[in-house]
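Hey, can you fold this one?
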Amino acid sequence: MLIRANHERKIEGGGCSWSYVETLEPADTYTITVPRKKGKEAREVTIQLRFEKLTIKSPQYKKLENIDMYALTATEVDGPKE
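Sure. Predicted structure:
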């Protein structure tokens, strides 16, 4: 299952989820074609993948279990400045 996150989560060991994953060395690098869109041509892009198993801490005010999950980022290398 893939879940999109739109804000940082505190993790066991200190720090926050995405800030931590961004410090990891890339696991792999791929070149892919992004299809053209209205007003933009198709282009080749290079992306780097980073991932790690994390334990997301439950909020302090709730009596919930921590959650083990994998965090993954796919980041474009030297993408256009828009």
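Residues 22-76 form one domain. Let me know if you want another pass with a different chain boundary.
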